[in-house]
Amino acid sequence: MGTSVYRTLLLRTGGFSVSDYIQKFTVRDLALIASGLRLYKLVLFLSFYFIRFVDEMSDDSRQTIEGPAVDEALFPSTNNDCPPLPAPFEHRIVSAKQVPMGSYYAVKPNEVLGGGRFGQVHKCAELSSGLILAAKFIKVKGMREREEVKNEIGVMNQLNHVNLIQLYDAFESRTNLTLIMEYVDGGELFDRIVDENYLLTELDAIVFMRQICEGVQYLHQQYILHLDLKPENILCVNSTGNQIKIIDFGLARKYRPREKLKVNFGTPEFLAPEVVNYDFVSFPTDMWSVGVITYMLLSGLSPFLGDNDAETMNNILHANWDFDSEAFENVTEEAKDFVTRLLIPTKCSRLSATGCMKHAWLNNLEDKAKLHQVRLKSQVKLQRYLAAHKQWKKHFYVVAAANRLKRFRQHHPINTV
């Protein structure tokens, strides 16, 4: 169903019995609504289900839906701006089974969804239900690596939010641990928006960043630090809409205020100053990464990227960045203020996830829908960035990053920020 039809039908209920489609909600759907969706998202969420129901009606029945015209300003112009659907299964507590995975799932070896330091992610199907899922195969060489994967399982067991990928099952063998997760098919966020057929406006950036901040806010409310927020770890739910989910909790840690946590891993461009300095990390560490992602989404440039890792990390430590005049030509002052309040060296001065949700840039979407229709210049620049980093993305390992951090600290002693 086209976007114009979608918006036209949104509130045209007329003589149609709304209770007919309300009955199609599951307990899971209603629990999601009750969990605190904000008003504009609640309207869009309900609208999505209404459209799904209308789509199932016969043509004759559909023509009986009449009513007042919808105010177009109420809804952003981007496609599918309702919240992502919940995972197609109830939230569950998972523990690794020590039985053959093949007894329960059929893996599609030729359908590789992604890969990295851990191994590969394949599409798979549950034998008993036919449910399509994603299988993340992780090679483990020792007890430490095994415990790290079990930590990931423990973290994901605590996550029940539409913007965070959900865990369905897990299996353990002598050499591997396999996580069975919710499947989404939209690909990485930045790969999606550089498509020449995609029109990226600031409103789109707002929709993306609001969802990212909602996911991070939920993580922090559970006292969990992601610690590896970057474009590769943000997936689109499908190839047409603007709904996203945060993935990869392999480096996530439970935050305990009395335990001073330090980490020695991450992707250089997205590291917060306290990680580079091997200082204590906390919630603001994730927010720095949110700032970097926002900057890149708006401009197509990586704010701290140098000619080598040492230069990149020096740029981070000295907060050596600015708003490129050409790249930010069509970007509003509100958006720049949002970035500025995140890329602050002093941890306690950064916006929290909750603070981001209250920031003017992420609010009043109905007004912004009228204004932010200018295409951002970030798309072309992001194409160049992704092309230059394609091979690097495939072969980047966190262990290598940790070694680079160690060498950097040995040769560049700097006071804690």
TrEMBL record:
SUPFAM superfamilies, per the entry: Protein kinase-like (PK-like)
The entry's keywords: ATP-binding, Kinase, Nucleotide-binding, Serine/threonine-protein kinase, Transferase
Residue ranges crossing the lipid bilayer per the database entry: none
Family membership: Belongs to the protein kinase superfamily. CAMK Ser/Thr protein kinase family.
Domain Protein kinase stretches: 107-362
Biological process (GO), any one: positive regulation of apoptotic process
GO MF entry, a single one: protein serine/threonine kinase activity
GO cellular component: nucleus
Alphabetized SMART domains for the sequence: S_TKc (SM00220)
Any Pfam family hit: Pkinase
Classification via PANTHER family: MYOSIN LIGHT CHAIN KINASE, SMOOTH MUSCLE, SERINE/THREONINE-PROTEIN KINASE 17
Protein name, as recorded: Myosin light chain kinase 3
Binding residues for ATP: K136
